[in-house]
Design a protein that fits this description.
By secondary structure, the chain is α+β, with helices and mostly antiparallel strands. It contains 5 helices and 4 strands, in the order ααβαββαβα.
Length: 142
């Protein structure tokens, strides 16, 4: 599912209207994220011609150990996704990594990739989060 900036803006404005006086920035972010995640699951659709980046932000962190980058990048490659940017840093014994991954050529959707990463995270005893780039961008614009 791909969303245009206008569609995400419409979702945000609708959410603010729905929440009324209860609309705090944190609550709006949470509700917009929930709505967009529902869209990613296919429960709601947008008009044909909707566009978005088709990219996700992957963040991973935990105690450093050999094989973290290998396991994550192997799974991404097997899913036919493209790593467009990668930053990693060791901070003492802690490993951190942020990736921008393009899903547009993958047969898997965001949920499928999240399930794969959850298995890797469990095996390596680290945390891995995947969030659609559009959600990430618009949550920080509110």
């Amino acid at each position: 599912m791909k969303l245009s900036e206008d569609e995400v803006r419409r979702i945000t404005l609708d959410t603010i209207t729905e929440l009324g006086e209860n609309a705090t920035p944190e609550l709006v972010k949470q509700k917009v994220k929930e709505k967009i995640e529902k869209l990613s699951e296919g429960s709601v659709s947008f008009p044909i011609g909707s566009t978005s980046s088709g990219r996700v932000i992957l963040t991973a962190f935990g105690l450093n150990k050999p094989g973290i980058v290998a396991a994550i990048t192997k799974s991404i490659a097997e899913s036919n996704c493209d790593i467009q940017d990668l930053s990693q840093k060791l901070m003492g014994d802690f490993f951190t990594m942020i990736m921008i991954v393009d899903l547009s050529t993958s047969p898997k959707d965001l949920k499928g990739l999240q399930k794969d990463m959850a298995k890797i995270a469990e095996e390596l005893k680290i945390k891995i989060y995947l969030q659609h780039e559009d959600v990430f961008k618009f949550m920080h614009r509110i």
